[in-house]
Description:
The chain is mainly alpha-helical. About 50% of the residues lie in helices and about 0% in strands.
Amino acid sequence: MPSASSPAISAESLTERAPAPRRRKSSTHANAPLTVEGRHRLLERCRSRPIAQVAREMGISRATASKRVNRYRQFSAAGLLDRSCELDRKPPGTGGDAKTQIEGMRREHKLSASRTAFKLQQVQVQISARTVTRLRGQLGLNRRRASGR
């Protein structure tokens, strides 16, 4: 049942197609039930029958069918296109200075990851113990015997 603020699914709106997106790797496999054409079939069927029934017929979950119908209502034909699974932004990496400090603390003082993170936070370097552990592994210093004991 469409809400008052979302457009209803009509035959006219299904025929209008979004412009072709730029070429990128497609994550759709050969037996995928919801290719772009499959999503059009889903919407066409949902015009006259309940979403749960259509989802069962198409072999997809009701949640997935609802998600696709709602994306269409929100974004119209563009909501039917494949979306990239890349992050919108990538967090910055740990700076070289922090890596040098982590290496020095491990080699000189044999500090644990949590203690190293605590000491770095005292000098205004915000880093988690897990990140310290990961970076020490990359440096080959994740074992105490490897750190020059």
